[in-house]
Structure formats: structure tokens, C-alpha cells
Amino acid sequence: LGSIEGDVPMAKWARYKELPEKKLKLLLRAGVPRHLRAEVWWYCLNAADRQKQSPQPYQGLSAPSDPKTEAEIEMDLHRTFPQSGLLAKGSERVEQLRRGLRAFAAY
After folding, report:
1. Shortest CA distance to 13 belongs to which of 22, 47, 24?
2. What is the mean pLDDT of residues 63-80?
3. What pLDDT is recorded for position 9?
4. Alpha-carbon dihedral sign for residues 71, 76, 87, 106
């Protein structure tokens, strides 16, 4: 496969979980390959353990909240990167952002 993003050989990414913290930090700073980002950040942020310890699941946090907060979120949704086609009204990305903002507000 050669190397990608930051000229880091893919072989180094194959065993990233086994690396000492300092080496992993260097590898992260060189750039995480796009197809591994979700997995790598899930691991680095210890998300599995955090998810187990969470008093309330994300689904509960991302549910609609009080009307004032919902109004602020709706106002922010379309102000965020207004030129971005990814955040066009009605797109799935807008819904993902909406859920993320609700969870952040509730947390």
C-alpha cells in the first residue's frame, strides 16, 4: 500500500494499539489515515470505557430538550458553514450536527 497522509507507512498503523504513548503521539501528529480515523480516535479517547461509565447514553443526551435550547440550536445549525453543501437544509449532516449540539447542551 505504500504510504499515505504524512508519508507514514501503513504498516505502522497496523499495530498502533501496541505502540508506547510517545510513539503513538508522533504517529497521530503525522496524520491519521482517513479510513482509520473513527477507529483510532475511538481507541485513543478510550471511548469504549467512557461509554460504559456514562450515566446517560448518547441517545438520551441527543433527544430534543427545552424549547429555548432547541431554538438556539436551530438558529446555529444554518449559521455553521453556510456555504458548505454538506450542511444544506434537510441533509443528514445537519441532523447529525443537530444531535451533537443537543448532546453537548445537555451534558
Report:
1. 24
2. 86
3. 63
4. negative
Rounded mean pLDDT of 31-49?
Answer: 88
Rg, Å, the chain Cα set: 18
Could you identify the residue written with the cell 430538550?
Answer: 65
Contact between residue 93 and residue 87 where contact means Cβ atoms under 8 Å apart: yes
- Asked if the model's pLDDT at residue 89 lies above 50, the reply is yes
Q: How far is C-alpha 66 from the geometric centre of its chain's CA atoms?
A: 25
In this prediction the pTM is 0.51
Q: How many CB atoms lie within 10 A of CB 8?
A: 18
| Dihedral angle computed from the Cα positions of residues 106, 81, 89 and 74, in that order, rounded to the nearest 10 degrees | 30
The DSSP element (H or E) to which 4 belongs, if any, is strand 3-4
Give me the phi and psi of 64, to 5 degrees please: -55, 145
Residue from 104, 32, 55 nearest 96 by CA? 104
